């Protein structure tokens, strides 16, 4: 397999890993009955989803050193805010459906914990009724992490309505340079005491949006005028010197990579203006379409399977962030996809000290589950290209395995 993968030519261009501003971003489409976490009664915008988690923890006014329950399957930006708030992280395992394995949490541990961070993975929201009941029984505040789920229905309630607080990330759903959301269905949010960014940062936010659009050849007409400007700007930027190898602890490096520097600021005006202007329907409809295309590709492919079964009914009330695909033997395939700069990633950087818990699927997901981005600014051709390459790599892998076994 290795020699075949090396022979695959690099993609002619990288595909966008997030929404990109284009004229089509302003197109209106009607997608009824899909609510947004932004529609909850109490909302405050932050610079990012991780900033929203940090602010949610501050709203709870927990004593220093209190424990917060966090899933073993996580992005580092789910752990960093807890530590920055001077709280301790305690991990819980996951059931195969992605919900917390509540029965496996030691009662003695639960008694010490004051809050629990529960995400809706992949943009596929689920009912948190049992989690809500468990938290109430144990006196634990529930933070509903909607970073992947800006839109949707979570069983009996709208997404975000289960938690004492809900947090979300706008940059995963809108073509904005940054922005997160702290929300609550029933708890007023105390003032966050945020500082305003500098004028230079505000201008840079607008430039970043336009430069990204130009890079991916969007905003036709305007993009051709801006290309020379951004090319000149990048020529003037001096390349960074190679950093010397350090002995920085892994946890310290992960905290730095999470970039928590602006969690105490208000979001940039570019983000707020675009959020207020852009319609939502296209975002939801295109994500549903792209998800369905991936589902068709991987309905019956040896060596891989959709992580969750989905029906037309369940998808009608969702705006997926990614298509989660279980791959039996993922390592070489994933590295090949990264080399080809296709919009696929994996949560394989778990925080140091994350334990191995009984009956927990978290560690398996960190290795086997590839997240295939399905945002609205990936075209049908982009989805086909990504899926076709993945299927091709799986076929090479299966053929190689048969030869080796012969």
Outline of the structure:
With 406 residues, this protein is of the alpha/beta class. The protein contains 14 helices and 13 strands.
Characterise the protein shown here.
- The chain has two domains: 2-23 and 279-405, Aspartate Aminotransferase, domain 1, CATH 3.90.1150.10; 31-184, Aspartate Aminotransferase, domain 2, CATH 3.40.640.10.
- The chain is 38% helix and 14% strand.
- The protein has helices at 2-6, 49-60, 76-84, 107-112, 129-138, 199-215, 222-236, 250-257, 269-277, 281-297, 312-315, 331-339, 362-368, 380-405, and strands at 42-46, 67-71, 88-92, 113-119, 141-146, 153-154, 157-158, 165-169, 180-184, 304-306, 322-327, 344-345, 369-373.
- The strands form three sheets. It has a seven-stranded mixed sheet with strand order 1-9-8-5-4-2-3, sandwiched between helices. The chain has a four-stranded antiparallel sheet with strand order 10-11-13-12.
- Helix 2 (49-60) packs parallel to helix 3 (76-84) and helix 10 (281-297) packs parallel to helix 14.
- The longest helix has 26 residues, at 380-405.
- 42% of the residues are buried.
- Mean pLDDT is 91; it is low at 241-245.
Q: What spatial form do the alpha-carbon principal axes imply? A: globular
Q: Report the structural category.
A: alpha/beta
Largest sheet: 7 strands, mixed
Proportion of beta-strand residues: 5-15%
Order of helices and strands: HEHEHEHEHEEEEEHHHHHEHEHEHEH
Quick one: CATH class of the largest domain?
Alpha Beta
The CATH superfamily label of the largest domain reads Type I PLP-dependent aspartate aminotransferase-like (Major domain)
> Total number of helical segments?
14
Radius of gyration: 22 Å
What CATH architecture label of the largest domain applies? 3-Layer(aba) Sandwich
């Amino acid at each position: 397999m290795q020699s075949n993968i090396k022979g695959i030519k690099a993609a002619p261009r990288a595909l966008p890993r997030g929404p990109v501003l284009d004229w089509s971003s302003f197109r209106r489409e009607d997608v009824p009955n899909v609510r947004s976490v932004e529609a909850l009664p109490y909302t405050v915008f932050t610079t990012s989803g991780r900033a929203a988690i940090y602010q949610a923890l501050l709203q709870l006014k927990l004593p220093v050193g209190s424990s917060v329950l966090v899933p073993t399957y996580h992005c580092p930006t789910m752990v960093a805010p807890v530590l920055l708030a001077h709280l301790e992280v305690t991990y819980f395992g996951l059931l195969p459906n992605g919900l917390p394995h509540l029965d496996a949490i030691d009662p003695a541990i639960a008694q010490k914990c004051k809050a629990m961070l529960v995400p809706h993975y992949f943009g596929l929201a689920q009912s948190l009724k049992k989690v809500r009941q468990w938290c109430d029984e144990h006196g634990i505040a529930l933070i509903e992490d909607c970073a992947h789920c800006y839109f949707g229905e979570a069983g009996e309630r709208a997404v975000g309505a289960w938690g004492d607080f809900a947090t979300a990330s706008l940059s995963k759903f809108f073509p904005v340079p940054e922005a997160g959301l702290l929300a609550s269905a029933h708890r007023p949010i105390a003032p966050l005491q945020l500082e305003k960014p500098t004028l230079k940062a505000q201008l840079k936010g607008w430039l970043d949006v336009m430069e990204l659009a130009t890079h991916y050849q969007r905003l036709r007409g305007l993009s051709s005028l801006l290309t020379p400007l951004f090319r000149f700007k990048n020529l003037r930027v001096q390349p960074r010197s190679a950093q010397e190898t350090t002995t920085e602890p892994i946890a310290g490096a992960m905290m730095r990579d999470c970039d928590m520097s602006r969690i105490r600021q208000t979001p940039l005006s570019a983000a707020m203006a675009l959020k207020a202007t852009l319609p939502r329907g296209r975002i939801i409809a295109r994500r549903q379409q792209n998800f369905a295309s991936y589902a068709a590709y991987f309905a019956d492919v040896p060596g891989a399977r959709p992580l969750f079964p989905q029906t037309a009914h369940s998808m009608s009330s969702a705006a997926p962030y990614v298509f989660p695909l279980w791959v039996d033997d993922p390592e070489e395939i994933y590295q090949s996809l990264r080399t080809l700069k296709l919009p696929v990633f994996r949560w394989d950087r778990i925080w140091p000290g994350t334990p191995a818990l009984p009956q927990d699927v978290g560690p398996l997901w960190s290795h086997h589950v590839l997240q295939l981005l399905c945002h609205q600014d990936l075209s049908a051709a982009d989805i086909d290209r990504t899926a076709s390459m993945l299927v091709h790599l799986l076929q090479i892998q299966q053929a190689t395995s048969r030869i080796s076994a012969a």
